[in-house]
Every structure is written in structure tokens, then in C-alpha cells.
Design goal:
Layout: H1 5-18, E1 20-25, H2 30-35, E2 38-40, H3 42-51, E3 56-60, H4 63-72, E4 77-79, H5 95-104, E5 109-113, H6 118-122, E6 126-128, H7 133-139, E7 144-147, H8 150-159, E8 165-167, H9 180-189, E9 194-197, H10 203-208, E10 211-212, H11 215-224, E11 229-233, H12 237-245, E12 250-253, H13 268-277, H14 286-300
Parallel strand pairs: 1-2, 1-3, 3-4, 5-6, 5-7, 7-8, 9-10, 9-11, 11-12
Helix pairs in contact: 1-13, 3-4, 11-12
Bound molecules: (~{Z})-2-methylbut-2-enedioic acid and iron/sulfur cluster (SF4).
Iron/sulfur cluster binds near residues 62, 87 and 88.
């Protein structure tokens, strides 16, 4: 950390001068998590951005998360330190794909995972996260068109025993790397550990785990459960936070290669640059922001 100390001091000084808040997603690199005022999942960070008194929110994550914060905050500057950091899964479904699915299923409600573009959100009835998808699926009476993640959709449909969920074909390339073989190997190595995986994993992986949880759910489970060892099946950035918050417990990555290259594009240099030069401001045109905000607010009302 010593080699970063000058840069860290400059970031702290810029933060103070600009009354800025730095928020970082749970998958961010450790140095970014450590400089952030808050770490969390996309919804926690968007909510926090909406209620802070800061004038500037510097959001370290991928584009759809920064856009979500920009939709929910009013009159604050939202900065993205690296605009090319995107989510390949969010980009797998377009508005035309949604419209096509609606044409074939005119009575269905469109539910979109937060990992979706703003324009897909703007044509959706309601959003959901990995933490509340089951609640939202249970509350909707009509058939559901779910975009973009076929695995989260499959998981939520199976828990809620719904047979009327029409799935898109999106998936997370990072969570796809996690295999059931990894669970077999990890359980042999750490027989007392609790195995928790993310619902973006494939169905064979989710059914072989002890629990299927969002990153927020994993943070709570790590704190509250009696086990001292945890095997973690999600993007490996979360392990830094888990280990930091629970120093007496042990956390093992189910698959060390489950690294999201886009999440790792954020660096201290880019954070410094965005704050210094006020660059990469994110604002969503009103005609797009309004319906997307409605889909997000419908979710928040549950
Ligand atoms: O909603 C989020 O932040 C994502 C993408 C994952 C999670 O489970 O927190
Ligand atoms: Fe998208 Fe997967 Fe990266 Fe999350 S981990 S931002 S779902 S590609």
C-alpha cells in the first residue's frame, strides 16, 4: 500500500474539497473497496447515493450500476471512473428482444434484472435484484417475461414453483466458470465449510450448494452463521470484504478464476482522474430515465 499512499492522500483531499462520496460494488478490486466510503450491492449503493448529502457520487462498478444511481439521484453529480466498464450479461438483451418476447406473450409482465441496460429497464414493468427476485416473482400474478439472466430466472421460477416464466438467453460469463466439480473438490478440502453460491451460477451449481444468495445475502450469512469456514461461489472480489469484516473466519473462493474483467477496470488512478477533472459524468435523458425510474421504484415499493 505504501506505493499508493501519495495517490490515496490526493484522492482523500479531492473528496473533501468536492464533498464527494465514493461507493464501490462488492466485486471491486481490494484497493478500490478500501478507499470507498461504502461497499455494497448495486441496489444498496443506488439507495445510498439517493440519500447522501454529498454533491458528487463517484461510483465504482459497471455502467448499469452507475446509470441506476444516476436515475435515482436528483441534482447530484454522478461520476463513472471508467465508462468502458460494462456488463456483458446486461448487453445480451436489447429493447427489440423484449418487444419480440412481449409480442409472443402479450399477457405477461416484463421483469428485468438490475443487470440490464437503461433502455431495457425503460420498457420493463418492474426491476429485481438477485436479493429480491423471489419476492417479486411471488408478487406477480401474470405470466413473467424475465430478462436477461436465464439462470437467475430459472432459479427464482423453481423456488416460487412457477411454470409461466418466459426466459431470455442471457448469462454471466464470470459465474458460468463455476462448476459442480469445484464444489466437490472444495467440500473435500474443507468439509466443515458452508457453501454459498450466487443465483447467476448454473442450476447444477445452485442445487449442489448449501445456500443461494446475493452478495448482500452472503455478507449477512458470513456475519450471522455459526460456521467458521465458507466456500464462496461468486466473483472473487467479494472475498476481500468478507475476510475484512470477519477476520476470525475463513473464506475460500469456489473458483479463483471467477473474476469479472470489467469490475477490475477501476483503478486508483482513474478515481483520482475523475475527481480531479470532473470527467465521465453520467446523466440519463429524461424520456428514458422516467420509465426506468418507475420500474425501479416499483421494485423499491416491495
Ligand atoms: O445487484 C448486484 O449488485 C449484483 C450484480 C450482484 C449481487 O448479488 O449483489
Ligand atoms: Fe456482469 Fe457477471 Fe461482471 Fe456481474 S460479474 S458485472 S453479471 S459480467
Amino acid at each position: 500500500m505504501a506505493e499508493n499512499s501519495g495517490l490515496l492522500d490526493e484522492i482523500k483531499e479531492l473528496k473533501r474539497k468536492r464533498n464527494a462520496l465514493i461507493v464501490a460494488h462488492n466485486y471491486q478490486p481490494p484497493v478500490v473497496q478500501d478507499i470507498a466510503d461504502f461497499c455494497g450491492d448495486s441496489l444498496e449503493l443506488a439507495r445510498l447515493s439517493a440519500k447522501t448529502d454529498a454533491d458528487v457520487i463517484l461510483f465504482c462498478g459497471v455502467d448499469f450500476m452507475v446509470e441506476m444511481a444516476a436515475i435515482l439521484v436528483d441534482g447530484k453529480t454522478v461520476l463513472n471512473p471508467e465508462p468502458s466498464a460494462t456488463c456483458p450479461m446486461a448487453n445480451m438483451v436489447t429493447v427489440d428482444d423484449v418487444k419480440e418476447m412481449q409480442k409472443e406473450n402479450p399477457n405477461a409482465r416484463v421483469v428485468c434484472y438490475v443487470n440490464s441496460t437503461v433502455d431495457v429497464k425503460s420498457v420493463s414493468h418492474i426491476c429485481c435484484t438477485s436479493g429480491n427476485a423471489i419476492k417479486i416473482f411471488s408478487a406477480i400474478k401474470e405470466p413473467i417475461i424475465f430478462v436477461p439472466d436465464k439462470f437467475l430466472g430459472t432459479y427464482a421460477a423453481s423456488v416460487t414453483k412457477r411454470k409461466d416464466v418466459i426466459l431470455a438467453n442471457g448469462f454471466c460469463p464470470t459465474h458460468m466458470l463455476i462448476k459442480t466439480k469445484d464444489i466437490e473438490v472444495a467440500r473435500k478440502k474443507h468439509p466443515h465449510a458452508f457453501v454459498m453460491v450466487h443465483p447467476e451460477c448454473t442450476p447444477d451449481v445452485t442445487s449442489a450448494a448449501d445456500a443461494v444468495l446475493s452478495t448482500g445475502g452472503m455478507v449477512r450469512a458470513a456475519k450471522e452463521r455459526a460456521e467458521k469456514e465458507f466456500i464462496v461461489g461468486t466473483e472473487t472480489g467479494l472475498l476481500h470484504r468478507l475476510q475484512k469484516e470477519n477476520p476470525r473466519k475463513r473464506f475460500y473462493a469456489l473458483n479463483k478464476n471467477a473474476v469479472c474483467p470489467n469490475m477490475k477496470k477501476i483503478t486508483l488512478e482513474k478515481i483520482h482522474n475523475a475527481l480531479l477533472n470532473n470527467c465521465h459524468k453520467v446523466s440519463i435523458p429524461a424520456d428514458m430515465a422516467k420509465p426506468a425510474r418507475e420500474a425501479l421504484e416499483r421494485m423499491l415499493s416491495y
